[in-house]
């Protein structure tokens, strides 16, 4: 039977994933992540100061910003710097990336420092937030290795892997890792952020068309767990 | 055994909920919703025009804005109009309210008109987004009744109820409808938006502390389904 | 003879006024003030810091912010937080409220602290600035009582009452406390802010149509003095 | 007896006033107005379009903008263009100038056109808003003469003179036309905008220190009426 | 003799230059340009509309925007979208890129359409504006080829090549194509934009330290002319 | 032969230049500069603090801001304070003025203080940036004299004169000091900033129409050098 997916992938088949490290000359850690035609450049920047509300507490912080080049998309979108503000979508995504990464960081072990993760979408084809989280973990990992190499840390900072994947129901079938063509028509669309040890950190599910049932939701969770497991394996290979 | 909750409620016990209709003299529909000490004024405003990207297509739109009075919270927060922009949190919430309501509206039946829902938090004690969605449905319902009374509609616009509730894991126990004291310390915090017929429209779950498991997530879903069922009953009584 | 006023009130008759205290759970002082269908929620928030230009001088400050819910008015108005700035009218009103309150506060007795008054119009039917000042005084009073109850003050801070009322010339007749229908058509429109002991603190008079004479202005002042006298009596009853 | 005023002027003595016409090469009307060391450049710009809410109605509009060069004041103030917004004070003043001028303009006779008045303070020494209104009338007059010279008007547009002056109570004495040194210490400060035929168009009085009485207010009005009478004479001489 | 340059390059030696076409899946034209470690992604986006001031005139427009990823630089710089505005430097550069490209485009032959060039610096090591112009020409070329392939054009649009290079005086020696280490210490720094036929389109020279002489300026021009000649050869090879 | 210039000036003839000192009562230094009908008010304001990145280093700073009154131009332009931001052109010009002045200031001799130069165009007829630089030098000079008079300086701060002039190619002829009518039609337009001792500090040349050659550029430089020489003489006379 032929796949009902525009990409002809099997329902549980992800796009080819690549995690290329060390792509940014200046950053303490960096990773160019590709989920098929979705390409995101993730950098980790170490700063020796924390936000005002953390000062003097001995704890560090991990934050994230997200952006998209104007012509990363099919139609050119307006440059946010020129529009004078970040859209609600951008803010929602960068808050999600930051929360996801902090779930696997021991902020006390980091000490009073901030790591800023920048995720910039060079080319978009669906799943930019999940690719961002997956690649950001690698950039964060390399930034922490950079610190270890300078004896800046006394105990482990990164306590687990974290990765994310999108799932959805398309033509009634639960599918893994939606590309743009599929995402824009799916009845339901969800993103899962899951740790290397299988704990769920974030779930965001939205019925774009008709509401979904508990059973449908569980089949999406099954797909996502398998997908993240694979992504974590790829992260492990990437940092070897 | 005594309840572990700060409010002494049973794990599956919601706060007292009130839905007061017709509280805004000028609006086509309005509802003051109270989930305990969380009070949100929801108004529905009918406008005979749609956003540019919908013009001429015969379909209508439902959108939402969310705000909080500066002293709705324990500490005064800065007025967003004075700060010159809406926070990422505000934008995230108002996008959620709009999506949730649109899930139960037949936009073609509405015709080329926009209904703007304003949810303004008069007093906050946790769960402002879930109270907003639940009250907004009542305001939206009354706006549509107002239109029916003027023969502006030829077929049903509102196809189902929709309501939302927060759930969380607090001291290891799944609990329903978190207030601020509980929410700020919960290990996991999730919001479910569910229709009157039980379909899931939005799921947002976040592990604030340690990641959660599939089983924990399912017990949260159980609580939420029961909670929304109760909220929908209250909506039905309110619009009698 | 029948009244020429849309509301059928006598020329020197105010709308029913209500001053409800303690309506905001978190605020140090609060008052929901109603001048007929104009409803304003006033809160007083105590902060243990002053603006930069007052630091270290031992004196305190009282400031005010004003806002209006989008559907407080007959037609929905754009949310200022979404527009990205406060209108000139909003800034003019909040500066007036702040100046008026400071006229009856001993800022040295307050000590190096700031009280922020928020006046949020829940429903508008003309006279929102005068209702705001009148209700704000009650919220301020309760905030100062709250401080007294905690032994934070060593001498009186609030040295007098202050209240405000609008007056105007409508169809050639001087009238008191204009509602929206009257205000939008009045030839002249003035606001007076007057203390409990009868001193004038602010006068703002504008000829919307033809200019007014000295005698007309004096008859407006007469009306306003009587109106504020009544408002101060109501404030006294409210704080009993 | 010596004058108690810092400037040694008599209580009812204005500063030297100059109204220089035609100072801006490009503008349809212009006037450099000086009230002593307060210098304001007023220009009138004719545009063949009106604001959206007036389109198609056949009526015109007169609007005003106000600005101050950064070093017009004793200490340099931040450039509003650089700060990214106009202050509340700026907006309040430009709204006042616009309202005042419109009080003596027949907007229907103007036709569907807008005259924009720009009042830019080159040097400030108190009374910038009253000098602006007084000089703006001359610029407006010349713009209308320019239109007459091109047969653009069929009936009179400017129906009266308008001018403005500040008054105050300083060391208990009512005084006319306060300069900065006096204004910053006056107990009461008021601005009157009055027409050539003596009608009051705007009154703004503020007690900076203790509240003022009805009698004090009347003595301020006396001073202002005499002052405006003199300013109108100077306007008449200027446009000869 | 050893080169005095940090990079050990000869004074008239450019960094390795690469021009990679077709790097952006969605854009009508694109080029990843590298001048050594300076990498800029240039895309050309065709839009079937022109700015308001050109509408109806039959002429087209070419415009440019410039941005830099936050960690393109040695220290992370603040994201302009988050800061809420583009810096003066950014605006200066994007105006320069737009002017330079328009110098070799026949805007009437383009027809009433706009081509937007986005130059986004992925990695910065000096010379980002000159690399941007050089790469933007290639993206623009490919966009115009794309149009030709769809029979959208009836006569040549691109009338010449254009490229740009930086030159400077470093330790008293005129040098070509400064990298960051050299640029930040050069006494004089200039950018030349020159066409394929050798005409000068833009000159920008700045003495960072001591002023420069006419002779020094001429030796810089010599270097730049040779550099641009080489860049134009590379453009020709790239588009074969 | 008659001059081809709209103004009938000879190709190497400047407009009448005036440099009037001490025109701003409050500023430490000021100059009203006129290049024909282009009038710019330049003020120098001394502040006893430096930008954050210079604090504690013992060096001072000279910065500049540029503005234009809305009706300085033939058509009224929108007020930047009302638009909410400075245009790219404004920022480009004020950065140029600041850089030019700093080229002749010994920032260490200035000590840890900032001099802010404000250049406000009262009337525009081409060449506002060159007039600004030329007049700003006089304002800066007087500010430094003011400091000397108060024994605030121990060694010379101003090390040379600096002035600027525009040149261009109009109808094929190189011309000096373009006015608006000429500037808007010139094929090439360049600005030179040159010191009293003849060193070049800034060159900005743009081909508006066809590119220019090296020889054309050199003839422009010749004109500019003669022009600046004359401007420096006028500065010397002005400060006698």
From TrEMBL, chains A, B, C, D, E, F:
Keyword tRNA-binding found: yes
Keyword tRNA processing: yes
Enzyme Commission designation: 2.7.7.56
GO BP term (any one): rRNA catabolic process
Keywords: Nucleotidyltransferase, RNA-binding, rRNA processing, Transferase, tRNA processing, tRNA-binding
Residue stretches in coiled coil: none
Region (Disordered): 72-91
Subunit structure: Homohexameric ring arranged as a trimer of dimers.
NCBIfam families documented for this protein: RNasePH
Family, similarity comment: Belongs to the RNase PH family.
The protein, known as: Ribonuclease PH
Source organism: Segnochrobactrum spirostomi
């Amino acid at each position: 039977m032929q796949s009902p997916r525009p990409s002809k992938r099997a329902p549980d088949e992800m796009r080819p994933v690549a995690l290329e490290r060390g792509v940014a000359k200046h950053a303490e850690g960096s990773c160019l992540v590709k989920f098929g035609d979705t390409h995101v450049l993730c950098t980790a920047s170490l700063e020796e100061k924390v936000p005002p509300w953390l000062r003097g507490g001995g704890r560090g912080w991990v934050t994230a910003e997200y952006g998209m080049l104007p012509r990363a998309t099919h139609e050119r979108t307006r440059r946010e710097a020129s529009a004078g503000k970040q859209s609600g979508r951008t803010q929602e995504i960068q808050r999600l990336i930051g929360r996801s990464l902090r779930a696997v960081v021991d902020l006390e072990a980091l000490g009073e420092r901030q790591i800023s993760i920048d995720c910039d979408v060079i080319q978009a084809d669906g799943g930019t937030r999940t690719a961002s989280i997956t690649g950001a973990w690698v950039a964060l990992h390399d930034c922490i290795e950079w610190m270890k190499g300078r004896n800046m840390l006394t105990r482990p900072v990164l306590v687990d892997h974290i990765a994310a994947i999108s799932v959805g129901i398309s033509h009634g079938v639960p599918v893994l890792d939606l590309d743009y063509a599929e995402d824009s028509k799916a009845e339901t669309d969800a993103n899962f952020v899951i740790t290397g040890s299988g704990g769920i950190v974030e779930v965001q599910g939205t019925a774009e068309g008709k509401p979904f049932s508990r059973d449908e939701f569980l089949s999406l969770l099954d797909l996502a767990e398998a997908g993240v497991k694979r992504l974590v394996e790829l992260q492990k290979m990437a940092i070897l």
